[in-house]
Records
---
Amino acid sequence: MSIVVVGSVAFDTVRTPFGEVDGALGGAATFFSVAASYFSPVNVVAVVGDDFGDEHLAVFDEHGVDARGIERAAGRTFRWGGEYSLNLNERTTLFTELNVFESFQPKLPPEYLESPYVFLANIDPELQMSVLEQVENPRLVACDTMNFWIDGKPEALRRLLRKVDILVINDEEARDLSERYNLVDAANAIMGMGPTAVVIKRGEHGVLAFLGDEIFSAPAYPLDKLADPTGAGDTFAGGFMGYIAGCEEVDPANLRRAIVAGSVMASYCVEEFSLAGIRNLDQEAIARRYRAFQSLTDFGDL
Ligand code: AMP
């Protein structure tokens, strides 16, 4: 079943110890859409500027993503810059230019309104809410956010969380949002704000998921070559939502598989800069790495 996603479509400038890119196609909604497209139909809502060419839109087309919800406005596309040191788990944001997102008022195409799955990728919580309010009777609503919004728009974020089923967030953000250091405490506090599940991304340490009263842990795939972690979180969310939108039931067993599907996609993302690691995958590559995850964590009985 289809997913509607709102989030940034961006030009990213990224420096890591392994290289750099300037003005590469990125943004939370872009990484999410490409990753989710391997599992389920995706409808994307975003805004881009007049500097966004057809060659950039092609990535959505190539993956069968419905991009009728990407509006083109006068001005510059969202731009973000970040730098990583050797510890790729930590990054410094060099700049965030909202540009056309500053005055964006999303209006969903009629074809999107009945999408049963909604993912509110990292963007202004007021925009996330405005998209959510337009979707009729969603079956599952998940969202992401980041410190920029936790600190910048705390009330709007709290209002949104009351309407969200699953929050997908990184560890530092979970601590910031809950004002608790211990992640179990933090997840419980966040579940008190509305979501019934909290999926905490921990970079190279994998994922710790609180699914109601169950806890599930998945490792990150140990890679010998890492180029650029940008977008790994959104790519994880894309694999996760894409998988779950393809399931009959949203139950803990499928949520666990969805978390591993997300981890598979994120592991491909970080191997290359920008979208290069996830642009040309196929089902065989995804299945192969899923099996590698299985054997990584398989231990027999005592
Ligand atoms: P991630 O590495 O998963 O946190 O995502 C990085 C992506 O998020 C980049 O492609 C950026 O363009 C985008 N991004 C960074 N900051 C923001 C922000 N404040 N709002 C929306 N998107 C952002």
---
Amino acid sequence: MYESNHLAKHLRTASLKQNDAVFIHNHENDQLISFENFFQNAEKIASALISAGIKPGDRVAMQVEKSSSVVELYFGTILAGACFLPLNTAYVPEEIDYFLRDSQPAIFVCDTLKIQGLTKIAKSNKVCHLWTLSADGTGTLVDARNAESPGFNGVKRDHDDLAAILYTSGTTGRSKGAMLTHMNLQSNAETLFKSWHFTNKDILIHALPLYHTHGLFVATNVSLLAGSSMLLMKNFNTDAICKRMPQSSVMMGVPTFYVRLLEHPDLNNAAKNMRLFISGSAPLLSQTHDLWKEVTGQAILERYGMTETNMNTSNPYYGERRAGTVGISLPGIELIVTDPSTGRILKDGRTGMIEIRGPNVFKGYWGMPKKTAEELRDNRFFITGDLGKISKDGYITLVSRSKDLIISAGYNIYPKEIEQLVNLIDGVLESAVIGVPHPDLGEAVVAAIVLESGFSLNEDIIMDSLHNRIANFKLPKKLMFVKKLPRNSMGKIQKNILRESYGGTFSNSLD
Ligand code: MLC
Ligand code: AMP
């Protein structure tokens, strides 16, 4: 089936033998969607996209709340030969304007509730069709789908054709669209499905957002390849997860999931039936790993990935899941550690830049050949910006990041973007944004602000100016008004000193 469409063909194979089995179980209303149902809906969406004039390679952007229709839209887009471009639901119109301008999608699907604010933006960016999809499963996308019949067999797409563009923040404050091919997604899903021993008996607790690599590709593609089920939850909720664990087998989550679940009194009982807990997207503290093992008897399997590369390493399914490490390079993926200044390979467990090569590595940044050339070497090794080391027996430890990036509960936040906005506020002389340890989020955003002399801005004024200009999760959790910022002899702000000064800000609280 879907013979000429590389990704669709692979993702459909396992379920052909079990069309009536449940693919998606909606947690909120207990609706069950069989594989047959799911693929028929995706086929109808693909037909609707074609009817709307979508051509191979066109972008289909969406910013909608999590639902099974999103997964159908993803697969329908692939079948239609187009390129899926999901956007974080927290983005405000100003941010959406940037993404639409940069990616020039032919279709943008937004939440019905947001259509008023987004119509003008879509028009000014020459989006041909603005469709809607609401959390309750209604909208013009669904109307267009329902006007079509199933039976669409997929537009021809080869392994090297684009399947998706996912935006990842940039160090300059400008987000970059990572172009992912059919091969990138298919090969990685295949590797993970095998490494984590997924089968059609598995039921995956899916409480992650559907607009990132983790919840979209890792969770969904692996489940499709294995023919397993997903219990789709709109939000992360510890009560709901503990209630559902006894009927499930695997959970994928960011470390915050595990930190919060450890506070739940039922965890120990609930987890008994689970075969696998997977963590990634941010560092899992050794303490969390150890405590989890103590409470549930199971070692969390930590893996490491990124938008540009999908998953690179994983702790083993059998064998030691070593706390504080991200495991071993996945089969078929080369990982080297290099000297950041010379690019020469470092051996003997020395710390350096992690570089990755393999079928998982993206094609480049959308419309940014210069940026692509800076990060993707001619020999196809991708310079990750993560600093790490490899032990004698192949386990990789991430030590720090060379990129000025904050990872807050799995969301990436680039300080530059916030600094630029803070610096625009009348009365602000300059600012520096840092990430500091946070017991719940892993890292939290803190802004150190220097005011111009004669100005006395308070926290509310600063926060009011930031609201509606950037997504809520990027807002600083704390503002520090300081007389001046620490600088080195070259005049560069020394963020390490700020991190030392404010590192204890959240140590005793769960903000
Ligand atoms: C929510 N808030 C956050 C936040 N998430 N603030 C900082 N960092 C975050 N990650 C804020 C909201 O803006 C809101 O602010 C308040 O918290 C409550 O919002 P919520 O939606 O109720 O939050 P909650 O449900 O508690 O969300 C926490 C979370 C979520 C852990 C469930 O952050 C999450 O789903 N994270 C996963 C992200 C993810 O999938 N990353 C994978 C990237 S792919 P206010 O002001 O309105 O109260 C990748 C590659 C790889 O990295 O290797 O996987
Ligand atoms: P993103 O750009 O959202 O894909 O985030 C990718 C980044 O998340 C990587 O470059 C790492 O810095 C970080 N990351 C992913 N997985 C892990 C992990 N298991 N431990 C530490 N950091 C991680």
